[in-house]
Amino acid sequence: MLLHQKIKGLEDFFKKLSERRPRGVYFYRINSYDETILKFIRKYYELAKKEGAIIDTNIENPTANNIAYFNEIIGDKYVHGPGFMAEALKKWLPRIRDYQRASIADGIYDTLEVLRRQGKNIDILKNNFIRIMCWLYYNFYNIMEKLGSEDIPKIIFWGNVNFSELSTLKILSNAGADIILVQPGGDAKYMAIDPKSEFSIDLKMGTESFPPGFNLDWLLKLYEDDKNKKLLYSNNTNIIANTNAWISGDIFEDLKNIRRGENTGFFYNMFVRINGCDNRNTYINNLYLLYQDLKKADRRVKVINNGISNPSVDEISGIKRGNYANENQLIMDLKKNITLKTNTFVDVARDAFVDTMIEVSKLMNMDLNKIMNKGIYILCWFKRYIFELLGNTDIHSPAPILIYFGNVESDTESLFLNMVAKLPIDVLIFNPEKKKDKLSGEKLYEVRFEETLNVKEFPTDGGSLTMGTMAYNAERDLDTIMYSDSGMYRDMQFAKANIIKLSTTYEEIALYWKQEARFRPNFSTVDEVVNIPIIFAKISGIANSDTNMYFQNIKDLITDTTLIYKNENIYKGNSSVASGVPSFYKNGRLDKDAIKQSQIYKYDFLRAETQDYILDKLSELLKRKIIVGTGQNGVEYKIITIVLDLPKEILRFIQSFDFTKCPPKLIIVNTTESIISLEDSVIVAFLNLIGFDILFFIPTGYDNISKYFNNQIMEEHIIGNYLYDVVIPDFNRLKPAKEKKKSFFARIFGR
To answer: Dihedral sign, CA of 141, 146, 151, 155?
Structure first.
């Protein structure tokens, strides 16, 4: 008889009898769930299927034929005692050993003795004896000889046991079997039978309840899914990745090392992220020297700076795909897009893609469209970066290198880098600012340094190499302290902004108009993006019909950063759709890279941040469909044409716009019946998204502004009577309003 023991960890279940300390068997019940528990159940189930027993829901009662055969072998006689039971076992299960027979006989006797003490008569004891003996023969015959052996047989019972079933399992456990009860419905029914947990132990692992429908069929379906997933792989004997196991820890030297191992069954690569820098004064120079050493050694190197740009329309169209009924079909077909110049690593690359797409399916919750979109992105990046890296590489070639410089901002980039790390490529990520990002991976080796440094890109060109002095770096540290969450801001500190429309009274416009954005209500900065409160309003009518004061008030709003248009168009160019524009916008997405590379692009003289900001806001304008007809009849192409052909004075104001300071202004005075054109409506909506303060002065009160806007995008203030045919003066010559002469006492006392 073997004693029940407690495990120290789930792996104890899979130890041989001689390796168990203390020696014994395990009888546990599982009432909760998580990934660890699922993994354990699957492993245990595999062993139970091979050399144990699996009971689903209950043990079926013996049939009439089962009982007839038992009576034929044992006879109709029953004696309530372990000796009789041992003799019966010798006839019924002749192949079990004597010590097993004695243990089982004692167990059966103890079980029936409990019933006897409860007042059960001899016929009931006999019937239970026959049931247990039939169960041992018909349900557990294949494990009887293995009981108590070095390789302990496994029994898994799925569901809630009754007293007879639990008693039989205890008999088998004492004779030398490991048993688990998987109880998706919880422990309540079990505790009604064994309130003191004398027969088995509650595992008390798992962090959540079992998912609905978690039964043996569910587990079998999981195995079937795994079987189908295995069919996605090449099933060829691929060269195996030896990732990071060979490295010394001196990453730069390891990267340059091309003698990494002799076993040709492996390729030796690295997957490393270096966070921070060891010495800011030499960091950039060391990176540059590393790059030079790698190039001298004829190593293939690709560098990705500050994120992977989205695939272009042409890249996406180059991925062959179809319609799929399920994720396996999708993965099997998409992986055919992976080709290389030589076939040495094609299967390795395709199998790595399958691994990645299985991870994608978990993230996307089995949504086929989302899975396909992720897969297309990864394949586009593979063709962009990896096809050339693995050009003519063979097993004896020094590993090519992919350098990612900056923080990994998306799950898709993380998936892509993990996929590349399964190929014969060294993947090195530099994160000198130590920003938190999305990158994670089981095989990722992390190097951490205390110091940080703001570096825009990996240095590959000596002509553009810059290094900071100690004083410069100290100044940057002070700069970080002063301008991080302090309410103080550097000039041009931010490259991105969102707008917040201020709802004001008419009188408040003059109050906020010349005020810096950082002092306005609801100003904030979040994740390097400024939220700018801006003014956007229509002023209708003239207060007290006083045109002199009306225009004087307008003049008071004119600043050095104000554009003013008086009964004239803002846009004076040709608004017909420019050649090539339709290719910039497809499937609701603006291709910014294609715009920058086109011949009609005029903004490449602007700061790179300004160019990106303009294109981001153009994309937002299209996405929000502010202009009537966007997405219909080619209006979106007209919008693109207009925004890419802005007047020079507007571009200058955008270029010099510091988001924390006073926003640039646009004032439009319209005293006529003319309606604002589509072209000017586009410019107004665009400058609103840029962050301009915008005012329309309409003394007539006409609704001549809203024709091309989908919604009421500005508030209106009616300040007085509507006047018509008002002549707009020359604001440069407009004299300030005469002040009322102060009295003697007012001059003395400032009143």
So the answer is: positive
Q: Residue 496 to residues 481, 486, 603, 611, 689: CA-CA distances in angstroms?
A: 21, 19, 17, 11, 11
Q: CA-to-CA distance for 555 and 553, rounded, in angstroms?
A: 5
pLDDT of amino acid 482: 47
Q: Where are the beta strands (DSSP E) in 502-648?
A: 524-526, 529-534, 536-540, 562-566, 585-586, 589-590
pLDDT at 483: 46
Distance separating alpha carbons of residues 664 and 615, to the nearest angstrom = 19
Residue boundaries of the structural domains of the chain: 3-212, 240-448, 496-536, 538-730
Residue 689 CB contacts under 8 Å (≥ 6 apart), including other chains: 499, 617, 620, 621
Condensed to tens digits (0 to 9), the pLDDT of residues 578-605 reads 888 999 998 889 999 999 999 999 999 9
Mode of pairing for the β-strands spanning 529-534 and 240-243: unpaired
Tell me the residue type at 721: N
E strands within 276-425? 301-305, 401-405
* Cβ atoms of residues 1 and 34 within 8 Å: no
Please state whether beta strands 589-590 and 585-586 pair in parallel, antiparallel, or not at all (unpaired): antiparallel
- Enumerate residues 6+ apart whose C-beta is below 8 A from 591: 312, 313, 583, 584, 585
Structure tokens at 629: 């007809």
In this structure, the number of other CB atoms found within 10 A of the CB of residue 699 comes to 25
What is the helix (H) or strand (E) element at residue 648, kind and residue range?
Answer: helix 648-655
Q: Residue 598: left if φ>0, alpha if ψ -120 to 50, beta else—which one?
A: beta
Q: Which residue blocks in 502-584 are alpha helix, DSSP H?
A: 506-513, 547-557
Q: Are strands 715-718 and 536-540 parallel, antiparallel or unpaired?
A: parallel
Helix orientation angle between 163-176 and 122-140, rounded to the nearest 10 degrees:
60
State pTM to two decimals: 0.50
Q: CB neighbours of 295 closer than 8 A, spacing ≥ 6? A: 301
pLDDT band at 573 (very low <50, low <70, confident <90, very high): confident
- The three-state secondary structure class of 119 is coil
Where residue 747 falls among pLDDT bands split at 50, 70, 90? Answer: very low
Judge whether 96 and 89 are in contact, CB under 8 Å: yes
Q: Nearest 5°: phi and psi at 695?
A: -130, 135
Q: In whole angstroms, what separates CA 580 from the centre of its chain?
A: 35
Sign of CA dihedral 195, 198, 204, 208: negative
The strand order across the sheet containing 271-275 reads: 301-305, 401-405, 426-431, 271-275, 445-448
Q: Looking at 7-152, list the stretches that DSSP marks H as alpha helix, in order from N- to C-terminal side.
A: 35-51, 64-74, 82-92, 98-117, 122-140
> What whole-number distance in Å separates Cα of residue 133 and Cα of residue 93?
9
Contacts of 28 (CB under 8 A, 6+ apart): 7, 179, 180, 181, 200, 201, 202, 203
Count of beta carbons in the 10 Å neighbourhood of residue 66 = 18
Two structure tokens written together for 361: 């399916």
pLDDT in tens, 337-362: 999 888 888 999 999 999 999 889 87
Nearest-angstrom CA–CA distance, 311 and 331? 19
Contact 156, 1 (CB under 8 A): no
- What is the C-alpha separation between 425 and 420, in angstroms, rounded? 7
Nearest to 32, CA basis, from 156, 263, 246, 211 = 211
